[in-house]
Amino acid sequence: MKKIFFLIFVIAVGCAPLPKGSVAPSGQKATQILKDGVKFVYLGNAGSVFVAGSFNNWSTNANPLRQVKPGVWETKLSLSPGTYQYKFVVDGNWVPDPNNPNTADDGFGGVNSVVVVTSGKAAKAGSSLKQATAPKKVEGGILFSYNAPDAASVVIAGSFNNWNTNASPLKKNKNGIWTIVLPLSSGTYQYKFVVDGNWVPDPNNPNTADDGYGGVNSVVNVKSNKEGLRWQKLP
Description:
Mean pLDDT: 82
Radius of gyration: 21 Å
Number of strands: 18
Largest sheet: 5 strands, antiparallel
CATH class of the largest domain: Mainly Beta
CATH architecture of the largest domain: Sandwich
Number of helices: 2
Low-confidence stretches: 1-20, 226-235
């Protein structure tokens, strides 16, 4: 009798619906950047799911997700290169993407999820870089680079991402150079690298500003092509 009860319990648990905001099960991909857009994925039971963000003026009904199978909701949006903040609206409730670690303060005591879209060429811009340089404009945005072959992680935090320490991670290439291309609009930005948790200004950028804590932030001034700045092809 106990064996029968245990078997019924196991079947019931195995067939239980996914809780709202569950982590992605094995083989199920969460929100991801594709070549032709961004696929937003929400995992959990719901009557309706929408994605609202800076790309649709935070509309709660402009971009619904479709339930492709029980507990899996998806939609794909074609977004131009840029940094976007978003949340899911699940049965009328605003929730950040539980499977996206990149976040930014939402100004209301919570966080928005963050996705950075770059062009295919921008994603490959730093793959062959042999030494770190000052920020430079390349096709797709501004290339930031940092030399730290032994570091476990390098992130760039600045005024362009609300000084978030996980929104913009750099990727290490085969030469030990960490790089990222950010599609920044015209403006002046302050930033630092966060290397294994330590905040450091860009050693290859002489332009700095007081950080208000006895140190300095690095400064980059981004101009549009109309203002005479052309993107550079990397060697």
